[in-house]
Predict the structure.
Amino acid sequence: MIVILFFLTLFIASIAAGALGSIVGIGGGLIVIPILTLFLGVDIHYAIGASIVSIIATSSGAAATYVKDRITNLRIGMFLETATTTGAIIGAAIAAYLSATILEAIFGTILIISLVPLVRKIGEEYPPKQQLKGLAKKLNLRGDYTERDGRKIDYNATNPGKGLAGMLAAGLISGLLGIGSGTFKVLSMDLAMKLPMKVSTTTSNFMIGVTAAASAGIYFARGDVNPLITAPVALGILIGAFLGTRLLVKAKNTAVRKIFALVLAATAIEMIIKALGF
Amino acid sequence: MNLKDPNSMNNILGIVLRSGVVLSGAIIAIGTALFVANHSLDDTSTYLAYNPGLIPHGNFPVSLASIATGLGSLDPFSVIELGFLVLLATPVARVALSLFLFAAEKDRMYVYLTAAVLAILLFSMLATPLIPLFNG
């Protein structure tokens, strides 16, 4: 393929990945990796390197808006980042000794199972107000944000322990597989910690950049981050993330959860297909 | 700006994130323009070769020294790599800045948590590429 056509294809796909990723709190590897490997015939290592670029670009691109709009919960994000970065390092260290196939099968199955509780609350606009107690109270894991129509939404987090465990899994996946890390973050905040959906996806968005940065140094030094791929991916994602943030601030929590459920199913299928070796 | 006001913390972090994104996007766009100007009709296979036996695996600069040399001659790939490094530095700068902002709010618990995240992040970015365990 000629360079200009390769750039344009990847640029357009990345705009879509950035828009979707910034709305549901994921890094866009779900779209970028298969486009590169299946459609453009690029080596999987470069595709994973591109996924890292895509995650960091989505995260910083979207977080700039979400942090200013105060939807992202900075404290909850920072608290959970202790677990995601630790998980990412452990994942990178054990990657050479573990079979990616088995891991993909396990994580894919966990995602499919988690569709059940997610679908059960598919119509829930705001979670029932939780009591702030224990560790969540000590760490002040609460917050509020203002919807477009001016209503102030107050919320408290619950189950911080379960949230941390989910984040450790998210970090491990990021270090090991380079895909699915955002999905696990949103699930932990939505199902375990019972945060409003938009707080979960924007806080996940805020965090995925740090998790990816933790393993980016290794990929970069190895030479897995190819500039021919980095350029159109980074530029497309930044534009897409900017567009996506405009949509999210206006969207209903239920709409975001529905899109997320579809993304979750697609991620699970992609992992299981990879595990089965197709 | 009053640092005790939680709004100003969000504003400062928002500005840092936006500056990092705009700067890295601009550098990458310049690198892309330089590359497309001379190579738009090249075949991509030359640039996409992956050598599993070699470190680095590809045919482009990955060390800071080689990127710096490449920048001197406006090598497009070095310019794009520089843009990527600015992008990579953005979340790290955000964590580092949070440390000061939590300190300004006198929130000791979060100063500790942020310091831990920053330490893990710097360890993994700077030290792990040098440790054989991580390069299998």
User: Anything to note?
Assistant: The first helix of chain B runs from residue 6 to 39. Residues 13 and 94 of chain B are 6 Å apart (CA to CA).
